[in-house]
Amino acid sequence: MKKSILLWLRWKHLIPENISFDTPTAAPPIPLSYGAFVTQENRAGMDNLFVSSHPLVKHKLTLLRDVGTDHRTFRELVRELALLLCYEATQDIKISPKTVTTPMAEAHGSKADEKIGLVPIMRAGMGLLEGVMELLPDVQVWHIGLYRDEKTLRPVQYYNKLPTEATVQVCIVLDPMLATGGSATATIDILKQWGVMRIKYLGLLAAPEGVAALHKAHPDVPVHVAELDSHLNEIGYIIPGLGDAGDRMFGT
Ligand code: PRP
Ligand code: URA
User: Distance (Å, rounded) from C-alpha 229 to C-alpha 251?
Assistant: First the structure.
């Protein structure tokens, strides 16, 4: 392929940055409605993936990724993105009829009718909470504390105060980064054992590896993100990603 075409494809984010000019492009990525990095090879296991196509999400995500974005702006962008993604992720929340009286007449409307629980995975999931709660002010919040072991990349649980019986019908798991998928899978395991069977995942960036792993473990869980990125690097970070979400949020 001509160098100018490759440069253009890179600029449009239609091919991953790790494809060099000398690399044979036998299986070029095909842009689908969800993410530009989906190839014939990695599209398996993506049936439940919903990548936002909203222009404001794309705009804000680009600012978020920028290494020059300061912590305060980063947190504000995370809050705004969470709100926009929550709007998309709650399109199938059940409603029931409700009638109110306006100053003019009776109006037959609706009320959201499911008990929703938000489950932020600490720490970075906390950043998504504020934006989501602006849309869903009357929900329960149940924190799960997990960190990823740096060597094994496996999640280690350090906080869980769920009561013995489930108190909600739907859970929305909040975590900005779906990398290997280990943290999300472990959290959803916990929620299913708790007795919640309707679960959604809401995040900012996903790697194909994480989407596939989560889909394998929990094919019923829809994954709502702002973008599907190219791949994980050798230490489990999303590329191009945004770096360590918790560190950028909290300035550590
Ligand atoms: C990050 C992120 C996810 C996890 C994703 O948390 O917020 O929880 O990594 O990786 P995985 O898909 O491979 O499990 P981290 O462990 O860095 O903890 P933190 O939120 O305290 O920074
Ligand atoms: N956790 C992060 O914060 N960033 C990554 O890229 C992967 C896991």
Answer: 24
The verdict on whether 247 is a catalytic residue reads yes
Q: Counting atoms of ligand 2 from 1, which one is nearest the CA of 124?
A: 3
Distance CA 87, CA 135 (A): 8
The residue type found at 216 is: K
Specify the pLDDT at position 46: 79
Enter the pTM of the model: 0.85
Ligand 1 centroid vs 148 CA: distance in angstroms? 6
The Cβ of residue 158 has, within 10 Å, a number of other Cβ atoms equal to: 10
Q: Which residue minimizes the CA distance to atom 5 of ligand 2?
A: 237
Report the alpha-carbon distance of residue 99 to residue 119 in Å, rounded: 31
14 pLDDT exceeds 80?
Answer: no
Tokens of 115: 């008990």
Looking at the chain, the number of H-run helices and the number of E-run strands are: 7, 15
At residue 97, φ and ψ (nearest 5 deg) are -65, 145
The reported pLDDT for the residue numbered 43 is 62
The continuous run of DSSP H or E covering 220 comes out as none
Place of tokens 């001509």: 2
- Compute the distance between CA of residue 97 and CA of residue 70 in angstroms, rounded to an integer: 45
Please answer whether residues 98 and 110 qualify as being in contact, where contact means their C-beta atoms are separated by less than 8 angstroms.
Answer: yes
Query: Per residue in 75-86, pLDDT tens?
Result: 999 999 999 999
- Compute the distance between CA of residue 22 and CA of residue 2 in angstroms, rounded to an integer: 11
Nearest CA to ligand 1 atom 21: 123
Quote the Cα angle for 215-193-82, to 5°: 55
Over residues 78-113, the pLDDT tens digits come to 999 999 999 999 999 999 999 999 999 999 999 999
